[in-house]
Design brief:
The chain is α/β, with parallel strands linked by helices and 174 residues long. Helix content is 46%, strand content 18%. It has a single domain, classed as Rossmann fold. It starts with a strand and ends with a strand.
Length: 174
């Protein structure tokens, strides 16, 4: 694991409420890391896939549906996350920060809450992601939807790795 502080703020107070969020291709291991971080930091874990599956079990039939329902979920979750952070609780959001427009939502949460943050960039090799996707399809853990390799390739083509000029404190996990 490599740690980069792209905000140039130096060391942060480990006890300060912190927003942890994930960036990485589908099946890179973001949800596994999110669960581990929640345990390590005694943080509240909010998993987009689980919420979407419970709230809209039959409505999400494709990528466009996902985008629309994820937008609705974010509108409801954002004030809750800000309140948790304001009350001194750390939060792990297992929501993707895979493209700049998604990262803008996290930037708004950080700005509005004044909380510390860490973007966890799970930088997993493309072929390894496919292997993990196929394993996930076989096991079907809660919150996961089966995805074909073709769907993975289409969605992965949209992925934009974070850059230093975005100004996030980031830990890279390889």
């Amino acid at each position: 694991m490599h740690t980069h502080d792209f905000t140039n703020k130096g060391t942060t107070d480990l006890m300060a409420p912190t927003l942890h969020f994930m960036c990485g291709k589908m099946a890179a291991g973001k949800s596994t890391l999110a669960r581990r971080l929640a345990d390590e930091h005694s943080a509240i874990l909010i998993c987009e896939d689980l919420w979407l599956q419970q709230l809209y079990p039959n409505e999400i039939r494709g990528f466009d549906d996902y985008v629309a329902y994820a937008r609705r979920l974010k509108a409801v979750i954002a004030p809750h996350v800000k309140a948790l952070l304001a009350h001194g609780l750390s939060v792990v959001l297992d929501f993707p920060a895979n493209v700049p427009v998604q990262r803008a939502w996290f930037r708004e949460l950080i700005s509005a809450s004044g909380a510390e943050h860490v973007m966890h960039f799970v930088d997993t090799d493309h072929d390894r992601c496919i292997e993990q996707l196929q394993q996930r399809n076989r096991e079907q853990p809660p919150g996961s939807m089966p995805m074909s390799v073709e769907q993975f390739e289409t969605i992965s083509a949209l992925f934009v790795p974070p850059t230093e000029d975005e100004g996030f404190s980031m830990q890279v996990h390889r």
